[in-house]
Amino acid sequence: MYKRQVVDDRFSTTALSQGQRKRLALVTAYLADRPCYVFDEWAADQDPVFKEFFYTELLAELRERNKGIVVISHDDQYFHVADRLVRLDYGRIREEEISRGR
What is the dotted CATH code of the domain comprising 6-96? Predict the structure, then answer.
């Protein structure tokens, strides 16, 4: 038995945790196969295992498919996976070098 089903073009339930709703939205966006994705603090409500999957595997797969990806995040332990790092720092926008080491 599946926890979620699509019935009449709608999900069978939306009685989900915040993290579950975000994962369901992610699957929906992924299946739409858009040219560009914007993730605004997407990983904030995810458990550590799925957060790692999101940053290291899912984003890499989207990059390999030549998708435009913008990730807004405070997860500085994953900044090394970015192509560019742009910070908003006290109202100033600045680009930073990316440290590739973990």
Answer: 3.40.50.300
How far apart (Å, rounded) are the C-alpha atoms in residues 73 and 70?
10
Report which secondary-structure segment, H or E, holds 41: none
Nearest to 41 by CA among 19, 60, 57: 19
Per-residue pLDDT of the chain (102 residues; tens, 9 = 90+): 445 555 556 665 666 777 777 888 888 888 889 999 999 999 988 889 999 999 999 999 999 999 999 999 999 999 999 999 999 889 999 999 888 765
Bridging pattern class, strands 36-40 and 68-72: parallel
What is the rounded distance in angstroms from the CA atom of residue 54 to the CA atom of residue 42? 9
Provide the whole-model pTM.
0.76
Phi then psi dihedrals of residue 101, to 5 deg? -80, 150
How far apart are the C-alpha atoms of 2 and 72, rounded to whole Å? 32
Whose tokens are 């915040």? That residue is 18
